[in-house]
Amino acid sequence: MSSDSAPERQPRVYESIKQRYGENRQFDVDAPWREWFRHRYLKYWYGLGSLVLDGMVVGVVLESTDPSHSWPYAVSAVLVVGLLYLELRGYMHFWPPKSPS
């Protein structure tokens, strides 16, 4: 990558960020509170809740078994991978990716 393309690229990146910020800000202002609550607020709490649930599952499995064995770690890993899959599917259901238009 040559150094001449960096100055040309910088304004495009800045304009893209500025446009996206403007669209997001416009959505925050114009959207009804239920849409804003679902699209902005719950999205972050869903992620935090998923992390807490994963940690609790690992904690319960490891707490309820003898730590001298190695199988509880494998069971925890399998359960967390399964939970991550379900959490990702749930996230994709509630907040589908935007299609390029």
In terms of topology, how is this protein built?
Blueprint: H1 5-30, H2 33-63, H3 71-94
Helix pairs in contact: 2-3
Give descriptors for this structure:
101 residues, mainly alpha
Give an overview of the whole structure.
This protein is mainly alpha-helical and 101 residues long. It folds into two domains: 1-30; 33-96. The protein is built from three helices and no strands. The protein has helices at 5-30, 33-63, 71-94. The longest helix has 31 residues, at 33-63. The radius of gyration is 21 Å and the shape is elongated. It starts with a helix and ends in a 7-residue tail after the last helix. The mean pLDDT is 81.
Radius of gyration: 21 Å
Beta strand %: under 5%
Considering DSSP H and I runs of 4 or more, what fraction of the residues is helical? over 70%
N-to-C span: 29 Å
* Low-pLDDT ranges: none
- The helix tally amounts to 3
Give the rounded overall mean pLDDT: 81
Order of helices and strands: HHH
Shape: elongated
Short recap of the structure:
This protein has 3 helices and no strands. It is mainly α and 101 residues long.
